[in-house]
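User: I'm writing a short report section on ligand binding and want a predicted complex to refer to. Could you take this sequence and adenosine monophosphate and write out the structure as tokens? A short remark afterwards would be nice.
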Amino acid sequence: MIRVEQVTLLGALGRVLAQPLHSPVDLPPFDNSAMDGYAVSTEVTQDVRGSRFRRIGVSAAGHPFSGNVGPGECVRIFTGAATPEGAQRVLLQEDCEDDGETVVVTGTPDPRSNIRARGNDLTAGSLLDPAGVRVDAFRVGRYAASGISHLAVYERPTVGVFSTGDELAPIGTPPEALPPGSIYESNRHALMALMAGLPVIVEDLGGLPDDPQAIRAALEDAAGRCDVIITSGGVSVGDHDHVKAVVESLGSLDFWRLNLKPGKPLAFGRLKQALFFGLPGNPVSTIITWLLIARPAVLAMCGAKVVPPLRLQARLASEVHHSRGRTEFQRGRYGATPQSGELMVEICGDQASNRLSSFDGANCLVEVPADADDLPVGSSVQILPLHAL
Ligand code: AMP
Ligand code: MG
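Assistant: Sure. The structure tokens for the complex follow:
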């Protein structure tokens, strides 16, 4: 069971609703004018061209007119102001001439009431959102319109992030001070950045050496404090890939290896009560397996209702190189053709899993089916927009 807490409306941004949320009020709460003009009692169907109305008062936003409007009368009214008793329509000021006492309809009013009826947006008691929904900015606006200042959300799970590898040097190390054979550590930073908008508490657990004892001690400690543990590297078949064996001995390994490119050596298991994701070390593989596998699982841990990623149909503007075997997710850039609006997608250069440059300019993943060979220009493919992942 995920625990629940009360937060302020703005504090709920990005969080997951723990209870269904209902509007306590009708929206709008009273009939009001959609335009600046004159509220009259004539029916919308009635032709009022040339009619004269006696001006009997003013209704402004926040300052309603308290009387009735009857035949031959009008009330000066502004957008958002309550319509007076008896009003059937609001004539636009552009269609009227007003000398302060009498209003003459000089234009041809459109056959609309220009009145926003009480409850036309929402009625009191109606469902704003079910539990499991993530609060976005549009929802913040909707909930505020219903007067909601606090709401119940799920507590954020703690996600611990490690990198592994003797070759990794901290960013900021001067290039001339890098030990021989070292590279800068990037996966942990990319992962923490990818988690930034999620309703989780990210714990930066640093880098681990390729040493089974050190990995064991660190994972055991993290398992006591984290709900999810994420590592990168050390899950492949090399002599220095110790992460998988440590997880097997310390907890359980539920699966290892997927028919996925990039990202084949992904490991999933449990350490005490924590979920464990051992993401592959190649930087592109780390990101792709996070987006497609670990992220949805973490969102589910947050109590969110998880839906499959958005997939769109597009036509290849550049060819895809692929050999049968694994489903591949290449980085691509899509856009609509100006003439037909059809989506076209081009592949962002060399797709080797060490090349973070393949994300440069990318706005989608191009899904290449496991049984596909090379795909020529013009082939129809499925794309997964990155903004929706
Ligand atoms: P591994 O799975 O540990 O063999 O790593 C595969 C490749 O990814 C190797 O070239 C590693 O140097 C590289 N790699 C692993 N972890 C990281 C990291 N955190 N940042 C950058 N590169 C990494
Ligand atoms: Mg390694």
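A remark for your report: The CA atoms of residues 254 and 269 lie 5 Å apart. The helical segments are 137-145, 187-194, 212-225, 243-250, 283-301.
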